Amino acid sequence: MHLPPQPADALPPWWKGWRGIAALVLALALIAGGLWFLWPVKEDTSCAADQPGLHWDGTGPQRECVGITDEKAFAFDPRLKGITDRIAQENRRVRAQWENPASGKSRLPYVKVGVLMPMTESDTSALPLAEIRTSLEGAFIAQCRANACPELSTTSSTGIQGKTPLIQLVLAHEGRNETHWKPVVRQLADLVDDEHPLVAVTGMGVSIPETQAAATELSRLKIPAIGAVLTATDLDSPRLFKVSPSNVDYAKALRRYLDHSPLAGHRGYLVFDSRDDNYVKTMRKAFDDEFSDYIGRRRASFVGTTGHNPAGIPRLFYNAVNNICLTKAQVIFYAGRDRDLADLIRALSTRSQCGHDAPITVMTGATGAFAQGQQVRSLLRDNKITILDVSATSPAQWVRGVHAPSGFKPFHQALRDLQFPDSVMDDGYAIMHHDAVLTAIWATRNVTGQTGKEAPDVQDVYNEITNLHDASTVPAAGGELSFDDASHGWPHNKPVPVIRLPEPLKDPGPPYLVP
User: Fold this and answer.
1) For residue 448, what is the enclosing H or E element?
2) Whole-number pLDDT of residue 308
């Protein structure tokens, strides 16, 4: 029996066979490849091996390796290696006392204090490397005193309430001109909620617009900041404090000196830096306000060398010297950066060519003694030029016991115990950065002493800084400093001594005190 032929089975659709599987795999591969091609790949911006806190920021000439370090030493400049190694070693010692205390010892809690500032230099940067190094050395001395480093003698103790929390220093490099402050401040803010939190930021660089921007952001983040060498009176943020006198205080200290000196009533002349720099702008205003009877309309500008956007040819003092010759001025008020003063002295030493042979006194205000004073000492003597520098520090006087603040002697002993030479104090930056860190530590220890907290938060520390007065005055190396909530962050009782070059004052008299 023959069966009728059956129709053939229909072929399965192509996508159900091996061809479909292959097509699907190919399509998925193409999609994945497209996504990989189009998806943004995060750039690796790390700039130092084994340093996760450091990264490249900026473009072109402004591109720099910036960020934060703590227990792993990193010298942004080889000349800083000695001090950055010591800070990192102390940070590791602090951690060890928490994680692995010696037998029979209790764990010692610790917190972090940031040091935000430039840690490299250029020919036009506001901070020369020598001042960067002494700044870090001063911060380290304060850290060691708080932590009772083994090298210290008992006479170098701080007198701070209690022994904990210990202090780690977080070094925060914001670029040679502070232009990379924003990502670095973000990194510091990320430490606020750590088990061992950041409680304050010190240093803050110098008085330029970038410092104001960083201070404003730190205040927004509720982090207290303590400027070490900030004197510009227009630098103001709700949580910004300073351990230095203001430019207004410098001018008032000079006025007090001038009114009781043989220079009283002599004709004055103002020489000022015209750049957009908070320090020089507010120094000029302070001189104008305090010495209008000396200056009147007698003034000449120049372009300073610091900053990354010079507006003109730097250090041209030709017009200033000609006008000083014409007016026969004998008291010169200098509103400019320290590093340009030597060139003004050189220019003034030629004034006899235009018939001005009378002695001249240059008045200015700075953190320490005129750094280039030795370079121009012979010019000063030979050309009857005197510099009167009202200053935040006067270690040469204080070492001799002349009007030395009560906190200077134990600081000086700690400096020697830690094998630093006395020359570290000359520019004033070690003393002022020590005092900024010490103020943060003083407030932190006061909080723990009153509350028993192992690790205070930034709000507690901010509140306590505003209460550092009367019984809680800070015995800083540069003065017995007081702070409250009504002084726009400036310290009360900060002494402003007078330094004279080339011949020092024989009897400087008691210094002006910031009210």
Assistant:
1) helix 429-451
2) 62
Task: Tell me the pLDDT band of 359, cut-offs 50, 70 and 90.
Answer: very high
Nearest Cα neighbor of 271 from 279, 262, 283, 289 is 283
DSSP state of 402: S
- Specify the pLDDT at position 1: 47
Q: Tell me the three state secondary structure of residue 451.
A: helix
Please tell me which of 34-38, 61-65, 235-239 the model is most confident about, judged by mean pLDDT: 235-239
Residue 149: Cβ within 10 Å count: 18
Q: Which helix (H) or strand (E) holds 391?
A: strand 385-391
Q: What is the distance between the alpha carbons of residues 230 and 244, in angstroms, rounded to a whole number?
A: 6
Can you tell me the distance from the alpha carbon of 429 to that of 21, in angstroms, rounded to the nearest whole number? 73
Calculate the CA 476 to chain-centre distance. Answer: 17
Q: Is 449 exposed, middle or buried (0-12, 13-18, 19+ CB in 10 A)?
A: middle
Specify whether the CB–CB gap between 228 and 433 falls below 8 A: yes
- 153-167: burial string, b at 16+ Cβ within 10 Å, e else: eeebebebeeebbbb
Alpha helices of 229-372 — where are they, by DSSP H?
Answer: 247-259, 278-290, 292-295, 318-327, 338-348
What angle do the packed helices 81-99 and 129-147 form, to 10 degrees?
A: 20
Give the angle 230-232-238 at the CA atoms, nearest 5°: 75
Residue with token string 């938060």:
457
Please check whether residue 228 is in contact with residue 436, taking contact to mean a CB–CB distance below 8 angstroms. yes
Map tokens 């007090």 to a residue: 256
Provide the 8-state DSSP code for 7: P
b/e burial code for range 486-511 (CB count within 10 A of at least 16 → b):
ebebbbbbbbbbbbbbbeeeeebeeb
